[in-house]
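#struct-help
A.M.: can someone run this one for me? Single chain, 190 residues.
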Amino acid sequence: PSIIAWTVLNESWGVPGADRDERKRDYTLSLYYLMKSIDPTRLIVDDDGWFHCVSDMCTIHYYSAGEFIPKSFEDGIRSFKKARPKIYLKPHEYNGEPIIYSEIGGFGYDLHGEIKEKWGYGNTLQDSEELYTKVLELLKEFDKRKEWIHGFCYTELYDQFQEINGLLTFDREPKFEPLKLKKELDKMFY
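D.P.: on it. Structure tokens below:
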């Protein structure tokens, strides 16, 4: 199978207020250890995106332009302590886990202008070229930090109903020429 990790919670769904409630922190922690006991062969993420207690990866959700990504590993660690929402819940701290930006992107663009109740992070983009440019700029920022950012996941590959954050439409039609992006990606991350 291609399962490399189990994610127990995502963005604290089901445990709101974990940053203020010790019982919810303990619950998150217990889910990590429960999954680790069920499957010790795979990585476990306790709460994807933020509010980590103990996790095999430090996962962060990041929906913003690249200029706000910390420039260095040290800046990244400092930013974990100041982040809102917090990346780690006290008394837990970053302990050398691989840093994965597990949700990035989220640029909203409606290719055919057909979606009535459209939704994306931030302002909706106006055309395919603007989407391509934003995606490429963001990926270049991650490429500059490849020594300390160990991975990322672009959100989303394709649109989900009213969520127009995809690189493809709901029907899997590319919003810009995929080979154009591939050509640029072939120069990065090595």
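A.M.: thanks! Residues 5-185 form a domain with the TIM Barrel fold (CATH 3.20.20.80).
D.P.: also worth noting: The CA atoms of residues 66 and 141 lie 6 Å apart.
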